[in-house]
Structures are given as C-alpha cells and as structure tokens.
Amino acid sequence: GGLHACGVDEAGAVRCFGDNRDGQLGLGDSADSVSRPTPVAGVDDAVQVVAGEWDACARRRSGKVACWTRSWGSEPPTPAADVDGITNAVALHSGGQYACAVDRAGATRCWGRATWTQCIWESNDNCQPEQWTTPRRVAGLAGIAGAVEVVGDCVRLLEGTVQCVTR
Q1: Distance, CA of 70 to CA of 147 (rounded, Å)
Q2: I want to staple 18 with a disulfide (CB 3.0 to 4.6 A). Which of 4, 47, 132, 153 is the partner?
Q3: Helix (H, G, I), strand (E, B), or coil: what is residue 96?
Q4: What's the whole-number mean pLDDT along residues 153-157?
Q5: Cis bond before residue 37 (omega within 30° of 0)
C-alpha cells in the first residue's frame, strides 16, 4: 500500500503493519503506526489480500471481499466489512484509492475513488474522478473478461496475458 503492508498467513488470517492514519491496518482506529504484523479483526478466511494507497481488501474463501479504511469524511475508520454485491470473486486488485474484483463469470467490478486510470476505460471524454460507493462494472472493461489489474491503457487478465487499447 501507500505506507503499509498486509499478508495472509497459512490459516487465512490477514495481518498488516505500517502507517495507520487512515485505518488501513484494519484495527478499527487511526492509531499510530504498528511495526509488527497485527491481525485484522474478522478476517480469518482470506486467500488473497491487496493494499491500496489508504486501504486494504481481502478476498475470502467464500468469494466475498472484505475491505477496511476511513471512508471519505468518516471518523473513526471502519473495521473490516464485506463489500455489498461482491459474492463470487476469483481475483482482486487494488489501485491507488480503488479496488476491483473479477467474478467467476469474468466480469470486473470496481469501487472506491475513481482515478484517471479508471476514466480511460469508462469513457473517452469527460470522465471525472468520483467516489464509487458500490461496485460497478466499468463500461470499457465489459467486453474484456477477467480484467484483474488496470494500468493506464492496458489490463492484465486473470490468465496472465495483457490486453491494451489504442486511442
């Protein structure tokens, strides 16, 4: 992440350490930095964890995704909670301030603060960064099944190949 890191242990528990000013360690508070990997409460069934700039998310064995951070303007930071609408994720990606999940059917849904990277895929003109409070399909990725990681004009697909658009 920005100034924090998280990992999944053998049992599926997520542990994070580093900066916690925005609740990105999943402790439910915004206390100072933590130097040792510390368990994220309520996340003991993870198979993948990703860390964004100020947040983190874990993909659970069930296919649900739990995230934790300080929502824009909220105090205190939220503890880990499942993301509404994500129930069968097979892959997870976190960008600066957003996350995306790929479901079993290959659909990619993203949520969080839209960035220019997402705008490239959303619309050719007038896409403004905004807060996506619920997961939604990014229009430009609708025909690209299994887009896991979005980097500028290119996406990494679930099977590992890369596909780019030209404008």
Answers
A1: 27
A2: 4
A3: coil
A4: 77
A5: no
What DSSP state is assigned to residue 143?
Answer: T
CA atoms within 13 A on the CB side of 164: 6
The identity of residue 47, as a single letter, is V
| Rounded distance between C-alpha atoms, residue 77 and residue 90, angstroms | 27
Element (H, E) at 119: helix 116-122
Residues 79-102: tens digit of each pLDDT = 899 999 999 999 888 877 788 888
C-alpha angle with apex 127: 161 to 150, nearest 5 degrees? Answer: 15
Burial of 141 (0-12, 13-18, 19+ CB in 10 A): buried
| DSSP 8-state symbol, 34 | E
Burial class (CB in 10 A: 0-12, 13-18, 19+), 93: buried
Give the chain's count of helices (H) and strands (E).
1, 14
- Two tokens, residue 152: 């500028």
Parallel, antiparallel, or unpaired: how do β-strands 78-82 and 147-151 relate? unpaired
> Residue 80: what residue type?
A
Cα separation, 110 vs 93, whole angstroms: 9
The token duo for 53 is 């700039």
DSSP letter at 141? G
